[in-house]
Amino acid sequence: MRSSQLRGLPIGTRVVVRYRLHDGEHGATDALGDLTAIDAVSCTVATRRGEVRIRIADIVAAKQVPPPPPPRPRR
Predict the structure, then answer these.
(1) What's the CA angle centered on 31, arms 59 and 15, to 5 degrees?
(2) DSSP string for residues in 18-56
(3) What is the mean pLDDT of residues 11-30?
(4) Which ranges in the chain belong to alpha helices (H)?
(5) Distance between CA 42 and CA 28 in Å, rounded?
(6) How many CB atoms lie within 10 A of CB 4?
(7) C-beta separation of 70 from 58 below 8 A
(8) What is the phi-psi region of residue 24: left when phi exceeds 0, alpha when psi lies from -120 to 50, beta otherwise?
(9) Which of 27, 38, 49, 71 could be a cystine partner for 43, CB 3.0 to 4.6 Å?
(10) What are the Histone acetyltransferase Rv0428c-like SH3 domain coordinates in residue numbering (predicted)?
């Protein structure tokens, strides 16, 4: 999915966004969670570990994903 398609998704959509790292690290990482904000410069994904703000220019790939499965019952 291109960033223009990502901009077309409604806020609250569950997404996975792969983006390039910059802080002295090489490679890329993923943010999986709910899309909470997006504009021409960046998007924000609410993950389990907190909100991640990602520059649009750093996005390698993105896609909508289904909701997480329900928790398993305890034995």
Answers:
(1) 85
(2) EEE--SS--SEEEEEEEEEEE-SSEEEEEETTEEEEEEG
(3) 89
(4) 3-7
(5) 16
(6) 8
(7) no
(8) left
(9) 38
(10) 10-63
Residue from 75, 71, 68 nearest 15 by CA? 68
Rounded Cα–Cα distance for residues 73 and 24 (Å): 42
Reference 44, options 20, 23, 15; nearest CA is 15
> The whole model's pTM is what?
0.85
Q: What are 52's two structure tokens?
A: 């991640």
Q: And the tokens for 66?
A: 């289904």
The top-level CATH class assigned to 3-64 is mainly beta
Q: Where are the domains of the chain?
A: 3-64
pLDDT above 70: percentage of residues in the chain: 92
Nearest-CA neighbor of 1 among 64, 67, 44, 68?
64
